[in-house]
Design a protein that fits this description.
single chain; alpha/beta; ten-stranded mixed β-sheet; two-stranded parallel sheet; elongated; binds iron/sulfur cluster
Length: 361
C-alpha cells in the first residue's frame, strides 16, 4: 500500500494508470486541503484510476477508538488504535482566540520515563511511522470539519520524545510542509523535547523555521536527572551549547518550558540555577502548572503565590516569563497526562512519591 501522504508514490501510481496529473492534484487538494473523506476525494479521479487508488492507497493507518470532549474547555482527546494494536493519543485544542491546535504523538509509549509524566509510566512500545503521525492530523481535520475548523498549529508534545524517533519526525515535518500535502508552515509547528542536544541542532539546521521548545524543568543537575532520567546522558553544559547553536541557526532561542513542582524545583536555589544556565540569553520561559496524573500524585503543584514569586524573580533577571495553562485536565488530556486511560482500561500503576530533593544548589 502507498500512504496518501507519500507524494512520490502517488505520482508513480498516477503514471501507472496514465491519469491526468491535473486530476491527481484535485484529488490531493480535496483530501489534504478541503478535509474531504477518502471516498469523496477519490471521486475526483476517473473510474480506472479510482479503482487502482482505492486498492493501493492507504488513507488511514489509525482507527479512532474513542473521543472524549472536555466539559470545561475546548479540548478533545482522541484515542487511536494502530494496526499492530497499540493505543496512542492526540489532543485537539480549541484556543479561545479561535485558532485550533493539535497535540500529536510520535511514539506509542515513551522510553524517557520522566517522573512527572503519565506516558513515562508506560515504557516504549514502538516508534510511530510518519503516516501514523500524519493520520492524527488528517483524522482530527475530518472531525473538525462540521465545526468549520481546521488544524492550524501543530505541537509535538503528545506521547513520546520526538527526537527519539528522529527519522520519522523529520519525514513527517517534510510531508506536512509539502505544497502537495497539508502545506503547513513550519512556523506553525512546535517540537518539544526533554533535551537531546545533537538532535535539536540537526532539526534547527534542516528546518530553520521550525519552532523548538526545551523542557528544562530544572537547571540543577541532580534535580533534573531525577525528573528526566535521560538527562544523565545529556548534561546541562551540552544543552546550553545546543541552545546557543539553535539560536545562531534559527535567529531565536527555543522556548524554555518549566513545569513547577512544589518544593522540588520552585525554590530560590532553582531561580539562581535557571538564571545561571540561561545567562546572557534572551530566553522566554513558559511556566507550566503541574497536572496530577492518574492515581496518587507523585508531586504537588506549586501554589499560585509561589508561582508568581518564581516568575517575578526570573523577570528580574531579564527573562520573559509566561504561564501556560493546559486545556483538557478534566479528561486527562493536559500536559503529562496522556496514558491511554479510557473506560474499561486499567490505569498505569502510580509512580511512588520520590524522596525530597535537597534545595541546595
Ligand atoms: S514528558 Fe515527554 S519525554 Fe518525558 S516521559 Fe512524558 S512523553 Fe516521554
Amino acid at each position: 500500500m502507498i500512504s496518501v501522504h507519500d507524494h512520490a508514490g502517488l505520482n508513480a501510481l498516477a503514471r501507472r494508470c496514465r491519469v491526468d496529473p491535473f486530476l491527481v492534484r484535485r484529488f490531493r487538494t480535496a483530501f489534504h486541503k478541503k478535509q474531504a473523506s477518502a471516498a469523496d476525494a477519490l471521486k475526483e479521479l476517473p473510474a480506472a484510476a479510482l479503482a487502482l487508488f482505492s486498492r493501493e492507497v492507504d488513507f488511514h493507518p489509525l482507527t479512532l477508538a474513542t473521543r472524549q470532549d472536555s466539559q470545561t474547555d475546548g479540548a478533545t482527546k482522541l484515542l487511536f488504535r494502530t494496526r499492530s494494536g497499540e493505543l496512542i493519543e492526540s489532543v485537539i485544542l480549541r484556543i479561545a482566540s479561535g485558532r485550533t491546535s493539535l497535540c500529536v504523538s510520535t511514539q506509542a509509549g515513551c522510553a524517557a520515563a520522566c517522573a512527572f509524566c503519565a506516558t513515562g509510566t508506560l515504557g516504549l512500545s514502538r516508534n510511530l511511522g510518519a503516516a501514523e503521525i500524519l493520520d492524527q492530523v488528517t483524522q482530527a481535520n475530518l472531525l473538525l470539519q462540521p465545526e468549520g475548523r481546521q488544524v492550524r498549529n501543530l505541537v509535538f508534545m503528545g506521547m513520546g520524545e520526538p527526537f527519539h524517533n528522529e527519522a520519522e519526525l523529520f519525514r513527517t515535518l517534510d510531508l506536512l510542509a509539502a505544497p502537495e500535502g497539508l502545506h503547513i508552515d513550519p512556523r506553525r509547528m512546535l517540537v518539544s523535547t526533554v533535551g537531546i542536544p545533537d538532535a535539536m541542532v540537526r532539526a534547527a539546521k534542516r528546518f530553520p523555521r521550525l519552532r523548538l521548545a526545551l523542557s528544562l524543568h530544572s537547571a540543577r543537575p541532580d534535580v533534573r536527572e531525577r525528573l528526566i532520567p535521560v538527562a544523565r546522558r545529556h548534561p546541562l553544559g551540552a544543552l546550553r551549547e545546543a541552545l546557543l547553536q539553535v539560536a545562531a541557526l534559527q535567529g531565536e532561542l527555543p522556548m524554555i518550558e518549566y513545569l513547577l513542582l512544589r518544593e522540588v524545583n520552585d525554590t530560590d536555589a532553582d531561580v539562581l540555577a535557571v538564571g545561571e544556565f540561561l545567562r546572557g540569553m534572551k530566553a522566554h520561559l513558559n511556566l507550566i502548572p503541574y497536572n496530577a496524573i492518574h492515581g496518587p500524585a507523585p508531586f504537588d503543584a506549586t501554589p499560585p503565590t509561589r508561582r508568581a514569586e518564581f516568575a517575578a524573580a526570573l523577570r528580574e533577571r531579564g527573562f520573559t516569563v509566561t504561564t501556560r495553562y493546559s486545556l483538557g485536565a478534566d479528561i486527562a488530556a493536559a500536559c503529562g497526562q496522556l496514558a491511554r486511560v479510557t473506560a474499561g482500561q486499567t490505569p498505569a500503576p502510580p509512580q511512588p512519591r520520590p524522596a525530597p530533593i535537597s534545595a541546595a544548589a
